[in-house]
Amino acid sequence: MHRIVNVVGVGGSSRPGSTAEQALRIVLDAAQRRGASVQLIAGPALAMPMYDPRQGTTTPQARRLLAAVSGADGLVLASPAYHGGISGLVKNALDHVEELREGPRPYFSERAVGCVAVANGWQGAASTLAALRDVTHALRGWPTPLGAAINTSTTRFSPAGDCKDDRVQAQLEEIAAQIVDFATRRVLAETPTESLR
Ligand SMILES: Cc1cc2nc3c(=O)[nH]c(=O)nc-3n(C[C@H](O)[C@H](O)[C@H](O)COP(=O)(O)O)c2cc1C
Q1: Model confidence over 114-153: pLDDT tens digits?
Q2: Rounded to 5 degrees, what are φ and ψ at 76?
């Protein structure tokens, strides 16, 4: 047997239960149904001072984020579109990942990263999804083949957090499948053959 893979979701907005956070939770729930353990870092947990390379990691929130990313086998990022791009809250949290440059797996390297953008229109959703995928590349991660661009003017979430659009729900579940599949392959590749017998 190989160990359980661990998927970490990072994103949302300062509003707990934001649309981006709801989408993130759907991906994490789907990953859990596929056997992964999951961890969510969203809302107030993302509130940290502007990243300053001279200061490094100065807050419990930043330390928790870095510990979670270090221990992740796969990741999901979700951001609302703010003026056509990643929100400052999410981008600042991702800037803190610079502190992982010296680790055995620097930044997001060797990990699949699902990206989800939420906006009030298609243009912002598409540009923000592309930006999240660019950041993933810059952090040496492997963007999953499928990302999700969600237009909240046409896609609704219920108060309980379910997505009312079956197609978007299916996309979010497919992103989870791609993350868990990639993570499981890597974990199997590092598992000694004798322990798989
Ligand atoms: C400061 C700010 C800037 C925004 N800029 C855009 C934008 O450029 N394009 C767009 O489609 N929506 C924009 N929106 C709308 C949000 O992306 C949209 O409402 C999203 O669904 C909110 O997600 P949340 O529920 O996760 O906060 C903006 C909202 C705010 C507060």
Answers
A1: 999 999 999 999 999 999 999 999 999 999 999 999 999 9
A2: -130, 130
First CA to last CA across the chain, in angstroms? 8
Q: Is residue 146 part of a domain?
A: yes
- 90 CA from centroid of ligand 1 (Å): 13
Cα distance between residue 8 and residue 37, in whole Å? 9
Cα 120 to ligand 1 centre (Å): 6
83, 128, 155, best to mutate for ligand 1 pocket (most atoms within 8 Å of CB): 83
Give residue 88 CA to ligand 1 midpoint distance, Å: 12
Distance CA(120)–CA(17), nearest Å, equals 16
pLDDT digits (tens, 9 = 90+) for 64-95: 999 999 999 999 999 999 999 999 999 999 99
Residue 1 belongs to some domain of the structure: no
* Ligand 1 proximity of 97 Cβ (cutoff 6 Å): no
CATH of the domain at 103: 3.40.50.360
- Strand bridging mode 85-86 / 74-82: antiparallel
User: What is the rounded CA–CA span in Å between residue 148 and residue 185?
Assistant: 23
- For residue 39, the enclosing domain spans 6-196
